[in-house]
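Box S1 | Example of a co-folding query
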Amino acid sequence: MIILGIETSCDDTGIAVLETIPTRKAVGASFKILSNVVSSQIKTHAPFGGVVPNLAAREHLKNIGPCLKTALKEANKTIKDINLIAVTVGPGLIPSLLIGVNFAKALAYKYNIPIVPVNHLEGHILASIFNSQFSISNKFSNNSISKFPAIALLVSGGHTQLILMQKFSRYKIIGETRDDAAGECFDKVAKLLKLGYPGGPAISKEASKVISKSKFLISNLPRRQAGQIPIIKLPRPMIQHKNYDFSFSGLKTAVLYLIQSQKSKIKSQKFIQNVCHETQQAIIDVLIDKTLRAAKEYKAKTIILSGGVAANEELRKQFELKIENLMKIENCKLKIKFLVPTKNLCMDNGAMIAMAGWLNKNKQTKNYSSIIANANLRIK
Ligand code: KG4
Ligand code: ZN
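Box S1 (continued) | Returned holo structure for zinc ion
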């Protein structure tokens, strides 16, 4: 089966061609990403420090045709080879979603192809299936994530959710952010520090220049270099709360107060680097703490990290270490597999939407008027 994946929920226009080959196993298939074209709008939105919905829609409209052309060309396919169109119907910005949904409908109508509506968040979770060793041709059933229950941490610019998966397509949100998403916190702090948009990569770049306490201890640097250890301390919001909800707006406000109280230092590179390091670490601490607690409570066999923030190198590294530590502490009573998408698949893209389309292929329809964009779509 050849699936066209279309993604326009926010500020990336993504079109991918995915080939799926059924295997003998019940839910099995091997997957091959034939092309995965993403047109980023960073330059358009950067001057505003965030995504401007109407500008995003205008850019999608301009880019979606050329993206389709490139994706088909790279895949060495024509539109007539496409068996199924998977399109993001939500959640996201409605002006952006409408471009992708209407584009999918027009294509489907003209070429008589069924459409399957896809939840963007399910796409992010399933991107973890295409990890490096499965990138060319992966087995969906045994080798990747057959181990349920799974706890998925979805961290993007618009969402921070902890999701319990008893199996594929069965999701239960056990916690989510009450205000800002983790990615939004990165973006807003970067704006306060005038580091540009998107904030996540900018903050992690600055943070990586700091020699942290752990690195200091490991490398046994001379004592006089101890001045490089950041002394800034920011809150870890809701880390002590017994539930699995998050809150990141207070962290951003704490950074704002810190900057206001230390106005003389705001031009200092070292100060900026330390603020970035501590902000990133505060976010990481809360995310990992809550996820591991959920994994223990629900006896998870798999932890999935996904969404744009999952591209954060430090978050990936620390997750892996903490999961290993937890398994040691639990004395092998707990065996957890850690799945995270390759970095290029963490951000919005069409391949993850095509993958979710394959999983939901029983929902395909030619009743195109039933495919409706929904900005507030929930995962369930
Ligand atoms: O999933 P995504 O591409 O779009 C949404 O669905 O929101 O995520 C975008 C978010 C932005 O907030 C961006 O700052 C964040 O992901 N992000 C990162 C990194 N790369 C992207 N956050 C932290 N570290 C990164 N390396
Ligand atoms: Zn996303």
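Confidence is low (pLDDT under 50) at residues 132-143, 216-227. Residues 2-130+345-370 form a domain with the Nucleotidyltransferase; domain 5 fold (CATH 3.30.420.40).
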